[in-house]
Amino acid sequence: MGAIAMAVPIVPGKENAWAEFASQVTGARKAEFDDFNARHGITDHRAWLQKNPDGSSLVIVVAEGPGAETFMGGFSTSDNEFDKWFTEKVAGAHGFDFSAPPPPPAERRI
To answer: 45, 51, 54, 82: which could form a disulfide with 32 (CB 3.0–4.6 Å)?
Structure first.
């Protein structure tokens, strides 16, 4: 099974937007999020909010499953309405430019 792990900064001032996004995928839009993960081959998708001593925030994301390696490219180019919404929310909260090449993956050390 594949896995990806990322530590993703939240754009300053976007903490509430990220919290609302997280609330939606675990609440009102959970069924769509579950379908999203299944369509992209993700069997376990977790995120933790990390507050840093300097006041900034980041999200630690772990996605596991056979689709983990191609996950970000898959949802960010999808025509599915939920995928478009998800991409917009991730781009806004984290400042991602999905038209640019992705950053290198995290290196597992332990």
So the answer is: 82
